[in-house]
From TrEMBL:
Transmembrane portions of the chain: 12-44, 56-84, 149-172, 213-232, 238-262, 269-287, 307-337
Protein name: AI-2E family transporter
Family, as annotated: Belongs to the autoinducer-2 exporter (AI-2E) (TC 2.A.86) family.
Membrane protein topology class: Multi-pass membrane protein
Tagged with keyword Isomerase: no
Species, as recorded: Piscinibacter gummiphilus
Alphabetized Pfam families for the sequence: AI-2E_transport
Alphabetical keyword list: Membrane, Transmembrane, Transmembrane helix
Entry's localization field: Membrane
Domain of life of the source: Bacteria
């Protein structure tokens, strides 16, 4: 069967797309730090351009913006330090007492239903003496002696920690030329259409990032105040960390709730801490999922709240953690594409008859 020029052109573009997707899939582990650096470059580029317009040399502008970004990221990670430094001594003291208390209260209650559960308090004490009682240097030595953690994983972590800032620096330095080169690869007859699509997608993604940042700030305040009302000593670091970590859907919330749960159990040594965490984090999850994210993020990018919830679930099912992380940005781009396809369809002969 003889293909028309239009059909051959369509097949050529489809082949290029399939090859591109296949290369990304095969090289995913290698591309991950470059992808992460690219996302950071896209987010930080407007700040660099503002400094450049104020006559700041580009190399200095890139350096200042990148340093500020990594200081902010490091500050968020360092919120865990006061939590760990305060909770480890409490963990050493309270864990055997909690295990003994569970044996005296929960075990007899479960035995009534034929469930025999008993915690070995002696083994727990031995574990604490061996691991939690050691100093930092001994713990680090034990950690590095592990073949799994001290091997490829640790090397990959250190490699990415060095590679991402370097790639980010060069991307920010060459961003205008990089965009110009990509624009030059687009066929001339399609450039106006592609430029309009990219401009609209850029505006929508900007709305997404601003909305997500607002959600993070509101949740940081909410969790900090909520935990403080329940008299948590570590309300501020745990609350701020949870609020900022929700940028990573599910994982950030889960890690923050785990830290709050540990802090509550160790501080109060009763069900009060567990109930307090359940109330604050349960209410916070409802507010985030059904009010803040749909309204502040979904409406800003023109997506129905139900579509936002469906996108998070669907992308998470298809691509796991990475899918959840990219669900709303990809959804925003698809909305722009969908609007253009709809406009083309309503103006086509197929629709008009």
């Amino acid at each position: 069967m003889q293909l028309t020029p239009a059909q051959r052109q369509t097949l050529s573009w489809l082949l290029i797309a399939v090859i591109g997707v296949l290369l990304v899939w095969l090289l995913a582990p290698v591309l991950m730090p470059f992808l992460f650096a690219g996302i950071l470059a896209y987010i930080l580029e407007p700040a660099v351009e503002k400094l450049v317009k104020r006559k700041v040399p580009r190399v200095l502008a890139v350096t200042l913006v990148e340093v500020a970004a990594f200081v902010l990221i490091l500050s968020v990670l360092l919120l865990i330090v006061p939590i760990v430094s305060k909770e480890l001594p409490l963990l050493r003291e309270q864990l055997p007492l909690l295990a003994d208390k569970l044996n005296r209260t929960v075990s007899p209650w479960l035995a009534q239903y034929g469930i025999e559960v008993a915690l070995d308090v002696a083994s727990i004490k031995a574990f604490i003496v061996k691991y939690l009682g050691a100093n930092v240097e001994d713990g680090l030595t034990t950690l590095l002696s592990s073949a799994r953690i001290g091997g490829s994983f640790l090397l990959a972590l250190i490699g990415n920690a060095v590679l991402v800032p370097a790639v980010l620096f060069y991307l920010l330095m060459d961003w205008p030329r990089l965009i110009s080169r990509i624009d030059g690869l687009v066929p001339p007859r399609l450039r106006d259409s592609v430029r309009g699509f990219m401009r609209e997608s850029d505006e929508m993604l900007g709305q997404y990032l601003r909305g997500q940042l607002l959600v993070m700030v509101i949740l940081a305040v909410f969790y900090s105040v909520g935990l403080a009302l329940f008299r948590f000593d570590l309300a501020v670091p745990v609350g701020v960390f949870t609020g900022l970590a929700v940028f990573i859907p599910y994982l950030g919330f889960g890690l923050g709730m785990l830290l709050a749960l540990i802090a509550g159990v160790l501080q109060f040594a009763s069900w009060y801490g567990v109930i307090a965490v359940a109330v604050v984090y349960g209410l916070g999850q409802v507010i985030e999922s059904f009010i803040l994210t749909p309204r502040l993020v979904g409406e800003r990018i023109g997506i129905n709240p139900l579509t936002v919830i469906f996108a998070l679930l669907a992308f998470g099912h298809l691509a796991g953690f990475v899918g959840v992380l990219l669900a709303l940005p990809v959804c925003a781009v698809l909305v722009v594409a969908g609007k253009r396809v709809l406009a083309w369809y309503t103006g086509s002969k197929l629709y008009l008859g």
